[in-house]
Amino acid sequence: MTTQTAPAARDLSTPQTGGSPRTTAVSGGTTGADHPAADRGRTSIADVAVVKVAGIAAREIPGVHDMGGGLSRTIGAMRDRVPGGRANAGRGVKVEVGERQTAIDLALVVEYGVSVMEVPQDVRENVVSAVERITGLEVVEVDITVNDVHLPDEDEPADTSGSRVE
Questions:
Q1: Domains, the chain, with CATH or none
Q2: How far is the C-alpha of 108 from the C-alpha of 119, rounded, in Å?
Q3: Per-residue model confidence as pLDDT tens digits over 36-47
Q4: How do residues 69-100 score in pLDDT, each as one tens digit?
């Protein structure tokens, strides 16, 4: 006579292999009819979900022109100009997600004229609030790098209509 054992629970707090996104267990699951329905099973949050929440929350703050470093911004700007192209909510955001906590790194471009000290404070508050409210993870830190200041005339294309000769 053979006995069967229940399969071992997967550890979702470590990176998955085979190209699957990294996920983190947020709540331990239980099984069995004697537990409330809401407690049966595990909840896990993929890193990309935290990245998107943080990116959207950062962009909501007035004075944030764009996010990301030089190359990622350039590639993102070209993609955003293509018809049907979508802005990448995660551009300029990196996260480290643990079982119950997360740390977030943001790269910002702020508008000229805004306080380079106040905008990141407002971004930090909004990101912490949104990530904790939406994911239930505790945000232990939000490190922000201001990579650039956007000048008002940087978006305007060069005027080539004023030719010197006719």
A1: 47-153 (3.30.70.1350)
A2: 10
A3: 887 778 888 999
A4: 865 545 555 555 445 555 688 899 999 999 89
> Which amino acid would we find at residue 44?
S
DSSP string, the chain: -----PPPPP-TTSPPSTTPPPEEEEE--B-STTS-GGGBS-EEEEHHHHHHHHHHHHHTSTTEEEES-HHHHHHHHHHHHSTT----TTTTEEEEE-SSEEEEEEEEEEETTS-TTHHHHHHHHHHHHHHHHHH--EEEEEEEEEEEEE-GGGSSPP--S--S--
The structure's pTM equals 0.69
What is the sign, positive or negative, of the torsion defined by CA atoms of 153, 154, 156, 160?
Answer: positive
Structure tokens belonging to residue 86: 């979508």
Length, in residues, of the chain = 166
